[in-house]
Automatic annotation (TrEMBL):
<dbReference type="InterPro" id="IPR001611">
    <property type="entry name" value="Leu-rich_rpt"/>
</dbReference>
<dbReference type="InterPro" id="IPR032675">
    <property type="entry name" value="LRR_dom_sf"/>
</dbReference>
<dbReference type="Pfam" id="PF13516">
    <property type="entry name" value="LRR_6"/>
</dbReference>
<protein>
    <submittedName>
        <fullName>Leucine-rich repeat-containing protein LOC400891</fullName>
    </submittedName>
</protein>
<dbReference type="InterPro" id="IPR052394">
    <property type="entry name" value="LRR-containing"/>
</dbReference>
Length: 251
């Protein structure tokens, strides 16, 4: 559809009051198209599910769409995976999340958030008390970024599902996330997907400890299973964990 298609859809959404789910993935929407779509996102309060995955949004679009997300009062699920949000643009996009009090599902997988984007996510998780599902699969987030997200998890009470697979967060990053859950007795996390990494003793111990604290938590990761405990509270091992939420973009 390109820019002209985005312009046409935006004009329609400014007036339409019946559409609640809109799938616009794979349309080569770029930063210019984002300007038109942002107008609709800001003004339309009827659309609850919006899929903008597999497009060509870059950092400028992150700034534009982030502002729109902050002002939207109807959107409950946003899929914006497989785009080109990096560092600054990712941070701007996520900044809107901290102000949004309606969005429950956010899929930003397969972008390039890096540690800057992860830091913004961590801050957003501290402020946001509505989001329930977050997918940051394959976003070049390293140990530093994982610890930023962990800082947000330490304070967040509402997030239920978090997918961090295919990020180079190593055992140190995984441990940081688990320690954050340990420190947050009011955490809402029900499903946590961590990357496939070798499991050392510290990580294995933390897995056991977290499972004791939260016996209903589904914790999924791959790696060396020999160091797993043979206790009653076994951690489910999954070499290819499912994407959190109901995204169609898992590969």
């Amino acid at each position: 559809l390109g820019v002209e298609g985005a312009k046409a859809f935006s004009a329609m959404l400014l007036e339409n009051t019946t559409i609640v789910s809109l799938q616009l993935s794979g349309n080569e929407f770029d930063d210019q198209a984002a300007k038109y779509l942002a107008d609709a996102i800001t003004a339309n309060s009827k659309v609850e599910i919006l899929d903008l995955s597999y497009n060509m949004f870059g950092d400028k679009a992150g700034e534009i769409l982030g502002t729109a997300i902050a002002e939207n009062i109807g959107l409950k699920e946003l899929k914006i995976s497989w785009n080109h949000f990096h560092s600054q643009g990712a941070a701007a996009l996520v900044k809107g999340l901290g102000s949004n009090i309606f969005l429950k599902v956010l899929d930003v997988s397969y972008n390039g958030f890096g540690n800057s984007g992860a830091a913004a996510l961590g801050e957003a998780l501290k402020a946001n008390n509505v989001l329930e599902e977050l997918n940051v699969r394959n976003n070049r987030i390293s140990v530093e970024g994982a610890l930023h997200i962990a800082a947000g998890l330490k304070e967040n009470k509402t997030l239920k599902r978090l997918n961090m697979t295919r990020n180079p967060i190593q055992s140190e990053g995984c441990c940081g996330v688990l320690k954050a859950l340990q420190a947050n007795s009011g955490t809402g996390i029900e499903i946590l997907d961590l990357p496939d990494i070798p499991v050392n003793k510290e990580l294995a111990d933390l897995c056991d400890a977290v499972k004791i604290l939260f016996p209903n938590l589904l914790l999924r990761h791959g790696g060396n299973t020999k160091l797993q405990r043979k206790s009653q509270l076994k951690v489910e091992l999954c070499s290819q964990p499912k994407v959190a939420g109901n995204s169609q973009n898992a590969v």
